């Protein structure tokens, strides 16, 4: 198959390379000419404008977007609409909010364009290991794109699936990331407890390696934890600041809307906020209150 990959960040580039290795023709486009040039140096065809990329594709054209969710995706889709023709297919492989996806599907349908939302997981390892693909859209279009999904997935018959109508793919990916938040938080807390037990002088990398085989908690996340600990057992070079890309928040909002209790995912999201609070006024107030009602000592910072 032939397609235009819009967005050549690390994930978009890796997906393009995996598709190329699978025998598909991939034209890569990015907003900066230097990024397109780099892609060409790595063996991809390059387009220096959306119009150029679209024009070089046969009908029905396939355009796969791997740009950041939100405004970037919105602008890209609006720019593509006048360049495409009825029957062409647009795939949003990013982490868009599923409500935006449903709205966009309706808009594109009015122009006669076919649309597929593909929640994509795999990160930087997808090039070698394959991607997990959660796909929403009409069955006929998804079936037409099957060769692409089979190439990107870990195997043709696993790691990908058509989960429902427009929006379902991004909805499933949203919940996937919420679960990921909870699993990561539990792992981080567990290893923190191990590290705090000073008298045992535990080798955290050794423990991670033990758990990787036969343990109930063995997982790819644990594999990655072991890898990180092997490189720096105390993680001294890593700042304790954890970002969130939005899906965890959306999962919590959805749980509230659906009256579904999700305390683990919610707390995991809140802990990411804690990691960013260098001022941590709440902790300062807690210490001040203990001092006020019980005379407990407080640690003072020297004023600058």
Task: Describe this protein's structure.
The protein has 304 residues and is α/β, with parallel strands linked by helices. It is 51% helix and 13% strand. The chain contains 14 helices and eight strands. Strand 2, helix 2 and strand 3 (45-47) form a beta-alpha-beta unit. The model has no long low-confidence stretch (mean pLDDT 94).
What's this, in brief?
This protein is α/β, with parallel strands linked by helices and 304 residues long. It is 51% helix and 13% strand. The protein has helices at 10-21, 33-41, 50-55, 71-80, 98-110, 126-129, 139-144, 146-152, 168-196, 204-211, 220-231, 247-257, 263-275, 281-294; strands at residues 2-6, 25-29, 45-47, 62-65, 89-92, 114-121, 132-136, 160-164.
Which characteristics define this entry?
304 residues; alpha/beta; 51% helix; 13% strand
Helix content: 40-55%
What is the terminal separation in angstroms? 63 Å
**Annotation field: number of helices:** 14
Protein structure class: alpha/beta
User: Segments where pLDDT lies below 50 for 5+ residues?
Assistant: none
| Broad shape | elongated
